[in-house]
Amino acid sequence: MTIGQQWIEVCGVDEIEEEDVIRFDHDDLTFAIYRTDTGDFYASDGYCTHEKFHLSNGLVMGKMIECPKHNGRFDIPTGAAKRAPVCVDLKTYPVKIEQDKVYIYI
Question: 19, 44, 62, 67: least buried by Cβ within 10 Å?
Fold first, then answer.
């Protein structure tokens, strides 16, 4: 493990609806935390790679997030850019659930 990397508590599992996304800020970093239509949780960098608009204002559709600025889309589990104008993938982070809390590894 690299010094400084750790599991950080984000929220309770009931604080994110299915097919929704929230913003989570930690120190000088910002993240998007997702809950897909199947109830799975994921995390990525918070800003769209196209024009740095925060994805927490976006639309979750199944396992896709659509940026609210120019409607580019990313695959939530992998961070892969899926629809123009986005062409650079999002960085994703491991997520775990313990005692009804959502944690990300950063």
Answer: 62
